[in-house]
Design a protein that fits this description.
alpha/beta; binds pyridoxal-5'-phosphate; 4-stranded antiparallel β-sheet; Aspartate Aminotransferase, domain 2
Length: about 375
């Protein structure tokens, strides 16, 4: 049985061949710890970090690539932003579709650090009215922290409008691009993003263990960690400049070599082509599932309003059972349950049931979509 991987919202698979090769080549033939001394190996490793930073800057229209720091994943990047900027007495706004990577750190600082937190309710399909967000602004509001697209419904947030509201009120705009980086154009200037967080292993097609954070120049942040950076080693004080400020300890250079290869692949293919293929798959799956009796599909109907993430349930069937049948009987890999986003499940009304999620990627074919629709049809008919 052929495996059809449709869990790209969790992590993309497979990666482009060049990504595997880049990781392997670094590990076998380069080695070296960036910034630690001046051996050839060290300098070569350093140039991988620099090249990847430059490629990311190009990708997100960031003027100065040194303002991008690498992290283990987007969860670490979001924690750095939330805990590094917010102080007791501050107020922060998010949406009701946030992933736990935003919601849990906000919950902690709300419960223990005297930070006020407002969650702006979204509609049943996950859409956010930016005017609702504007109405939540208070005199002590310091930050808007939200996702670009939901990992449960794919719903796209009105990022440009929210960015403009943040600018107008002099608020920090922190964006979680876990579900959009690599599949939708992101421009920190056009979208007024002050702090861009990204993960390397999803749409950017890099390996797990990669991600990062961009800080608009001029922002003052308290780093979560201090340690070796290879710079200013004579001082006990941690460097105050980017990226060293947020990059303590040895970086995941093999992973970053892979991430660079992923970025190059996306550039070669063209982000519009990737988006258009994923939208096509998404349209087909939504239409196919909606025609099956007993199947409920969540999120906006039009694929233009969402990423290629399709959550659904089959009436009176446990979502875990559906996911297991898809995997074991049909070779289709999905995710089921609460998808690390209880807030979003409450918003769309699936907190009790969870959902089964199909997330096709660039390497899926139209034939894959047909097989998946037929598989769900058979499972639904056998109830
Ligand atoms: C919207 C959103 N934010 C954050 C994350 C966390 O990503 P990571 O595990 O790479 O930190 C995810 C992962 O699914 C996500 O979908």
């Amino acid at each position: 049985m052929r495996t059809i991987y449709m869990d790209n919202a969790a992590t993309t698979f497979p990666k482009p061949e060049a990504v595997y090769q880049a990781v392997d080549f670094f590990n076998r033939h380069m080695g070296g710890n960036p910034g630690r001394g001046s051996s050839k190996a060290t300098l070569q490793a350093g140039s991988i970090l620099m090249d990847c930073r430059d490629a990311l800057a190009d990708f997100f229209n960031i003027a100065d690539s040194s303002h991008i720091a690498f992290t283990l994943n987007i969860t670490e990047a979001i924690n750095i932003a939330i805990k590094g900027f917010l102080r007791p007495g501050d107020h922060v706004i998010s949406s009701s579709m946030e992933h736990n990577s935003v919601a849990r750190p906000l919950h902690v600082i709300n419960q223990h650090n005297g930070v006020e937190w407002t969650t702006v309710p979204c509609a049943g399909d996950g859409t956010l009215d930016p005017e609702d967000l504007r109405r939540a602004i208070q005199p002590n509001t310091r930050m808007i922290c939200m996702l670009h697209a939901s990992n449960l419904t794919g719903t796209l947030m009105p990022v440009e409008e929210v960015g403009a509201i943040a600018r107008e009120h002099d608020l920090l705009f922190v964006l979680d691009t876990a579900q959009t980086a690599g599949v939708l154009p992101i421009d920190v200037e056009k979208q007024s993003i002050d702090v861009l967080t990204f993960t390397g292993h999803k749409g950017l097609l890099g390996p797990q263990g990669t991600g990062g954070i961009y800080l608009r120049p001029g922002l003052n942040i308290n780093p979560l960690k201090q340690g070796g950076t290879g710079s200013l080693s004579e001082y006990l004080e941690h460097p105050a400049f980017m990226p060293d400020l947020l990059e303590s300890g040895t970086q995941n250079t093999p992973g970053i070599a892979g991430l660079l290869a992923g970025l190059n692949f996306i550039k070669e293919q063209g982000i519009d082509r990737i988006r258009s293929h994923e939208q096509h798959l998404c349209d087909k799956i939504i239409k196919g599932l909606k025609e099956i009796p007993g199947v409920t599909v969540y999120g906006p109907v039009e694929s233009i309003k969402r990423t290629a993430v399709v959550s659904f349930n089959i009436h009176e069937m446990d979502c875990g059972e559906v996911s297991t049948q898809l995997d074991y009987k049909y070779g289709v890999v999905t995710r089921s349950g609460l998808h690390c986003t209880p807030l979003a499940h409450r918003t769309i009304g699936t907190f009790e049931s969870g959902s089964c999620r199909l997330s096709p990627g660039y390497f899926n074919s139209i034939e894959d979509a047909d097989i998946v629709i037929e598989a769900v049809h058979e499972i639904a008919s056998s109830r």
